[in-house]
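Much of what follows relies on a compact textual record of a protein's fold. Think of the row as the fold of the chain written in a discrete alphabet. An example makes this concrete, so a full record is given next.


***
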Amino acid sequence: MFGYEISKYIPFKAEDIYFDVAVLDENYSAKEFFLLVAAAKKSYVDSLINEFQQEKINIDTITLNNIALINLYLNSKDTESNIATLDIGASSTLLNLFKKGTPSLSREIKISAGEFSARLIKLKDINEEEAEHIITSLDEARETTEVQEIIEIIEEIGLELAEEIKNSLDYFEVNSGERVQKILLTGGLSKVKGFNKIIENSLGVDVELWNPYLYASHYNVNDSIKNYKEFLAVVLGMSL
């Protein structure tokens, strides 16, 4: 039924997109359902499928990264609070806001770990691999000029990201009349020691490092993989 009215909600022609819906609340009002809608342009999806077909790889499921993160959180036990999930990926940051377990806002922010790497590469005249090593092994306790320069970049990125998040938190508060009580942080940049505190102090909201394995306890995961938990939230969310 939604397919007949999708043009009211999606800024593309229905024949140009693939879409799917999930019912979040079937008793939203006397005459309404509350739906989660995911949509993607056919031309983009078809090009991806074609690449896999050329390699003779069958695709079973296609989803959006943010939908996978929503799914991961909905498998948690804490769905009575207002929570935000924040995944700082290589090319963008994914933000989801939940009102007592119900998704209420999902957006992509262009500030990312890649932006931090780019600034680091320019500052230090190094390659991407070296920049990634610095990100994952930075020791803030070393009081050297070199490390202080890097920390300044971290703080710049953190404050820019916090400003974008604040806009969404304000929107949530205005529309729901409630505040977000906690942010769950994951993604590559969350490995940088103290980065969560930069966002926490800027927003005045608790920022907790998000361990996706808490919601995937049935997986047999060895310790070496657990060391990369910050990079696997999307993958685990899709697999649940």
